[in-house]
Write a structure and sequence with these properties.
about 230 residues; 8-stranded mixed beta sheet; disordered N terminus; Rossmann fold; alpha/beta
Length: about 230
């Protein structure tokens, strides 16, 4: 479905009817969104929502966001794990609907086209990533975009996935986050403390990974700011 009725003039890939509607930008967790919120002070016509981790949370939040804001277009953003060995840390990757406004600008600004696999669990090891790459042919893995974009297509709202590589295909996560997650995928700090109590040597790697996540979120925020500008 096109962004607007066919008789309306199109400007920069968006109809006059939709130009004043906000972009809806979805992040799973606040740590992904925090660096980008500073860009919103520049007055971009965008609304940010936090969906929570995983397909179920993403469905609930996306439906609420679409109903509340009636956006012109939707971006589903955040971290992604690389399945393609050629994708390095900090690479911004994207996949967009044919009707997505200014889709060409995503590539022109330096994002790499990619195929995404939607997972219902956190992919923690290089071996798992290699298996998924072999089975799906996808370039990157994450947990929310597939359901968000399915809903957007059903509602006739153009959407795109724009994410940043937080961990490469060759690396393991410092711990298996599935083992310390609650049913809603939030972290159980009791379970985390138990894991670190058994394996205190994991703490430096976990702290280093957290710094990398912040750096990746800042890279993505800068990219999104340039795109919306």
């Amino acid at each position: 479905m096109a962004a607007g009725p066919r008789h309306l003039p199109m400007i920069n890939g968006m109809s006059d009817e939709n130009r004043n509607l906000p972009w809806l930008i979805c992040f799973a967790v606040s740590q992904e969104a925090k660096p980008f919120r500073a860009w919103l002070k520049k007055g971009f016509p965008a609304r940010v929502i936090r969906t929570g981790i995983g397909p179920h949370n993403a469905r609930t939040a996306c439906l609420a966001g679409l109903s509340r804001f009636q956006p012109a277009a939707v971006l589903t953003c955040g971290w992604a794990g690389a399945l393609n060995p050629a994708l390095g840390f900090g690479t911004v990757v994207f996949q967009a609907d044919p009707t997505f406004p200014r889709a060409g600008d995503l590539k022109n600004l330096g994002a790499a086209p990619a195929a995404f696999h939607g997972s219902d669990r956190i992919i923690a090891t290089a071996a798992e990533k290699e298996r998924l790459r072999r089975e799906t042919g996808a370039d990157a893995v994450e947990m929310e975009s597939q359901i968000i974009r399915d809903i957007c297509r059903q509602r006739g709202v153009p959407s795109a996935t724009v994410r940043v590589i937080s961990d490469t295909a060759q690396e393991n996560l410092p711990i298996d986050f599935n083992a310390i997650a609650r049913p809603d995928y939030s972290i159980s700090y009791f379970k985390l403390a138990a894991v670190l109590g058994r394996s205190p040597g994991k703490l430096p790697a976990l702290l280093a990974f957290n710094r990398r996540l912040r750096q990746a979120a800042e890279i993505l925020a800068g990219f999104l700011g340039r795109f919306l500008a």
